[in-house]
Each structure stands twice: as structure tokens, then as C-alpha cells.
Amino acid sequence: MSHASRIKSLEELVNKSAAVRVIGSGFEFTEGPIWHPRDQFLLFSDIPGDTRRRFDGKVVREQARPSNKGNGMTYDADLNLLVCEHSTSSVARFVGGADGAREVLASHFEGKELNSPNDIVVSKDGSIYFTDPTYGRMPVFGVERPVQLGFQGVYRIATDRTLDLMVGKYLFTQPNGLCFSPDERLLYVNDTEQANIRVFDVVDSGALTNMRVFASGITDPGEAGAPDGMKCDAQGNIWVTAPGGLWIYAPDGALIGKITVPEVVANLHWGGRDWRTLFITASTSLYAIDVKVGPHQEAFMTA
Fold first, then answer.
1. In this predicted structure, what is the pLDDT of residue 133?
2. What's the average model confidence in pLDDT over 51-79?
3. Reduced to 3 states, what is the DSSP secondary structure of residue 26?
4. What is the pLDDT of residues 196-244, one digit of tens each?
5. CATH assignment of 8-302?
6. DSSP 8-state class, residue 233
7. HSE-up of 221 (CA within 13 Å, CB side)?
8. Rounded to an integer, what distance in angstroms lies between the CA atom of residue 287 and that of residue 299?
9. CA dihedral defined by 234, 31, 285, 54, rounded to 10 degrees?
10. Separation of alpha carbons 264 and 285, rounded Å
């Protein structure tokens, strides 16, 4: 598989000859990959199939059905699984992991249902940030129903369970992927419809300030795909789903290069014992590629 490169530093992240290999296929629409650091397995969502799936290094099997059409997932520092659920408009926590008791962390704001939490990250202080577009109120990807809030926000669940809107109500059209910089002083949030990535300073209180556009024009009329899932590597580079596969940006916003994937990519996550396998959820399949750089070190990764 060829990988287009605008500057040589792409070769420092992935070999030109590295193959994007198929791990499993025949799904409906895959999303939300997350690697378990202790037990060494990957969970990912199949949203229209209303199923959470598990890859143990050999085979893919069902882990949960129904899954409330879960989308983005992550772990907290105690390896409780956090899931953005489309059908319930909730952020849910599964105590002790995917098979644990389910509890709802957030479902309403200002007395109205959230739209459909989409993607999620946990800061080192234990607070949870998530995006809330309306995709989970569409047919196939959720339960078709009218929106209640009238805007699409980015939220923070504090350690005391307080839910706060972190951005202006009308800043985003469809906020989607989000990730921290390695020092967690920056939070990146992309917008699928606006085809851009914004970056915010994260102050000590957890508030987001000094918004600016990090990357824009993430489109290509000749390729399918859009900003969706997004992750930061250990060097501060931003990996985002985009037309044709994955686009990688340097910390200064320069486009380093692109990784071609055979299907439209929805999300990505590092895994493997050395955190050098990049798992890619793309339409009907789960893919993987060996890379040279690991992820930004999140709290759950050393649990």
C-alpha cells in the first residue's frame, strides 16, 4: 500500500512499505476502537449492528449485543470502560470493564437530552471530555428522533459528576473526534461538516480557552472520507480520519502525509504490547498497520 508523503518526516512515523492489513471484515460500520493495556485486546463498535466486538489477537467475536449503538470508547485510570451511546443519548461507564455493571454518567444538559455523545477522552485528573453531534439521531446509526438541545456541543464531566458545556453553543456544526496533546495543555476537536480541526488551551480548571483553527480544508473531491476519529501520538502529531484514509499533521499544523486505507475510515487507536500497532476502523472492516511511534500516554495505558 503506497503512502503519499509531502515531507520526509512521515517516514519517521511509518515505513513506506508498511501494509494496511485486514483483521476482520463483514461488519456494518465500525467505530470507537480502544485497546486494553492489561489484558491485551481491542474493543470496537459496530454501530448499525448494535454490537460491541472484541479482537483478542486471533479472532473477532461479539462482546455485547445490543450495545445501545455505542460509538466512541475509552477507559479511565481504573480501567472502567466509558462508552458514548447513540440510542440512549448517554455517556455510560461499565465498572471494571466491558462486562461490568452499567451506570450513566451524563444524559441531559439544561433539562434536555443530549444529542448523541460521539467520541470521548479522559484527562489525567479524571475528568471526561466528549463531543455531542446529532449523528445518533439518524436512521441506521442511531434512533431517529427530533433533537432537543438545538446545538452541538463539547462537554466535560468533572470528577464530581458536574456536566459543563465547554464551548460556545454554536461554534461547531458537528463536533466529532477529540484528543489531548501529550502534556494535556491542548485539546483538539474536529468538525466533520466544517472539515477542520480546532485547538484550545486547557487551563488548570479544565476550561478551554484561546480557540484557534489548527487545520482546515480537510476535503478532497476525488476521495471519500471526512474528519471523524482523531488521536495524538507521543510526539504531538495529530492523526485524523480524512478523505482516502488518515492524514497526519505536525504540532505546528503542517500536513506531514497521508496513509491510504481501502475503505472510508471512521476512527483509530494504538495497541499491541509495544503500542506500535495502529488499529483502524473503516466502514465494514477492522484494519491494522505497524507504525514507528506510539500514542500520547493516557492515564489508562499504564493501569
1. 98
2. 97
3. coil
4. 999 999 999 999 999 999 999 999 999 999 999 999 999 999 999 999 9
5. 2.120.10.30
6. B
7. 0
8. 25
9. 90
10. 10
